[in-house]
Design brief:
mainly alpha, Arc Repressor Mutant, subunit A, two-stranded antiparallel sheet, 2 strands
């Protein structure tokens, strides 16, 4: 399964926020995050907005505003994040277009099983676990 660019940016942003010394207090601006990950500001605004709606980040506008984690990184599972950021549905769409195999197709159930196994595997890892890498720590030191 390939994640969308939106999920990719969401995970990167959350990992960066989680790697801060005080992730529930340290504020990072959307512009700084966009520059850090070399993405358009408008893309990062969309990511921040959706993560805010989901309660994964807290957002504040104006002077001194920005983003910070909305929950403790230990409580955020990677599978939960991806479920929020990925479009809903399975690996294949059997309902939009007519399919003569739909009535007794075994492929859909096999793919659904694989899809759920993917999320179960991601659920084994917390954001805090994933944020403990030397490269993230170095990035935090460089960016302040």
């Amino acid at each position: 399964m390939q994640l969308t660019r939106f999920s990719d940016l969401s995970l990167r942003l959350l990992l960066y926020l989680a790697s801060r010394d005080k992730p529930l207090e340290t504020v990072v601006t959307v512009r700084a995050a966009a520059e850090l990950f070399h993405v358009p500001y408008t893309h990062m605004v969309k990511v921040a907005y959706q993560l805010g709606l989901a309660g994964l980040v807290e957002t504040a506008k104006g002077r001194g505003g920005g983003l910070r984690l909305g929950r403790r990184p230990e409580s955020l599972r990677i599978g939960e994040i991806v479920r929020i950021t990925e479009p809903k549905g399975g690996l294949i769409d059997c309902w939009t277009q007519p399919c003569p195999l739909r009535e007794d197709c075994l492929l859909k159930s096999a793919l659904d099983e694989a899809y759920e196994a993917f999320f179960r595997a991601l659920d084994r890892y917390s954001l805090a676990q994933m944020a403990k890498t030397p490269s993230l720590q170095k990035l935090v030191q460089i960016t302040g």
